[in-house]
Structure formats: C-alpha cells, structure tokens
Amino acid sequence: MALRRPPTRIELKTDDIEDYEEILRERQMAAEEAASNSGSYKGKGMVGGPTPSPGAKRKQAAAERIGIGKAR
Asked: How much is the pTM?
C-alpha cells in the first residue's frame, strides 16, 4: 500500500529574485570586463584566486536554491 503525502511546494521569494538578478549583473559585468581586458593580461596578479565576500555563502545557497549554481 502506497502512502500519500501532500504535494511539494516550491516558493519563490523576493530575496531569491534579488539574488538571481544580482548574480546576472555580476556575470554580465565580468563578461564585459573580460571582453575589454582580453589582450591585456600578462600573467601577473592574483595568486590564490578571488577572495569571497562576507555574504558569499548566503549567495551561494540562494543560487543553488533557485537553480543557477556555478558558472560554466
């Protein structure tokens, strides 16, 4: 005998929408910056990679929750 359960609810919150739009803006700015600096990189600069911002874990959790994950 199968057990019945209530259907799963998916809620979209305003915080999720704001986080999604912020991530899209960051990606767009990064793409524009990469396009403008496409020939100026000389192999110097950051050694360990970018430093995460204080709210990075919250943003990452929100990104995973709304399904955008990491950039490819």
From this structure: 0.43
